[in-house]
Amino acid sequence: MKKFFVISFLGCILFSACQGGNLPADGSAFSAANGQNSGSFFTNLNGSSMQNGVASDALGNTPEDQLTRTGMLRAIYSQEQLKSPQYLMDQEMGGTQQVISDAYRQAVLAGPAKDCLDKVGSKADDCFDAYVRERTKEDGVQAAFTDLKVLYDVSPTVQSYCHPLAHAIGHAAVDKYPTVAEAFEHGNSFCWSGYYHGVMEQIMENMGESFVSKIDTICADIPGKAQYSFSYYNCVHGMGHGLMDVEGDDLFKSLKMCDKLTGAWEDQSCYSGVFMQNVINDGLAFHSANLKPDDTVYPCNAVDTPYKDQCYLMQTSYMLKINGYDFKKTFDICANVDKGFSVTCYRSLGRDASGSSVSDLQKTHDTCLLGNDYTQQSECIVGAVKDFISYYHGIDKANLLCQSLNDPKQTQQALEGPRMVQYCLNTASNYYKSF
């Protein structure tokens, strides 16, 4: 398989320590997916429109809002391990609630997976990767995911490598379910929808160059296309990941391929997959040619304007990695990006502030208030409050984050506290309606 799985850079190599569970001081993260529901997040849609130049649905939600739900990098970049009970973990990470018996857990931990638990570093990654692929091949997708949930509870390696392991299950599932619709029907959103991304990578790899003439129909049979459902988003977004695979990580060529899709919403969703894959690709064992340590804004400052929004929604992850997870410095970088895209950059930082702290209210609050002015702080809060709603699957914690901005002792930099509170509450209310 492609280096994405062979060199195991996610989790272990990219920004986190596999053994011992000590994750980095900071970094990018994306919040949890909203379950397996293949129905629409939107209601009464009459097609997409444009919001500030970006495709959106009738409620004003853009592919940024769907991206917030994918949660792809939360565990990879978080500074704390997720140690929630199984029932809560399933909700947070996008899986359906599932009760797993103690007997089943013991059987998994005493079986072939035990060899993987005894390994460290990349050997552990490769072992778990092979395990879930074989489990999928022999016993099916859901059996593989049940085992993955068991292993997640006990293994820091699985916690940090969970999303690419879900990718691996998606890869293996295509042997059983060769069409996109069939593979998605048997899918599971646990570990931030990685399964669906893996399915798309494998299907596009199997298609070879023939995908070029079929790119506009690959996701046509996914339920909820007309309503821009989360399943449809995962398909188109996953196509962006797949394009980077089949195009040899040529970011600019992959973006041009996204343009062959019909619809601005589809284009933007595909772009997001391309840029996300680009950030993921950069690890100690593999350096992305599309990222520059001496110019952390690149490639956002090099791509054409239609691509910039999705690029800046991703690029703060790389900025933070390179500058030692210095949020204050990254605010300054965002302030000087291409004209018209600083707000996108600040919101991306807000998502990172929430994700890197596992949506801890005080830590997120303090990080966003590192911004130099009202705009930086408030737009960071916008990104954070959306991430809170996606992570907690509710609005209560998001509202608490908003209300915390009204304490003058805690918001000395927030010169317009009441105004920021209201902006935050309005954002939370509008965003929560899409769930």
Textual characterization of the structure:
- The structure is a single chain.
- The model is unreliable at 1-53, 56-60 and 68-96 (pLDDT under 50).
- A hairpin with a 2-residue loop joins strand 1 (49-51) and strand 2 (54-56).
- A two-stranded antiparallel sheet has the order 1-2.
- It is built from 23 helices and two strands.
- It has helices at residues 3-6, 63-70, 74-77, 86-92, 102-110, 113-117, 121-139, 141-154, 156-160, 162-176, 180-185, 194-207, 211-214, 230-246, 251-258, 264-281, 305-322, 327-335, 342-356, 361-368, 374-392, 396-403, 417-432; strands at residues 49-51, 54-56.
- The protein is an all-alpha fold and 435 residues long.
- 57% of the residues lie in helices and 1% in strands.
- It has a domain at 3-21 and 66-292 and 301-310.
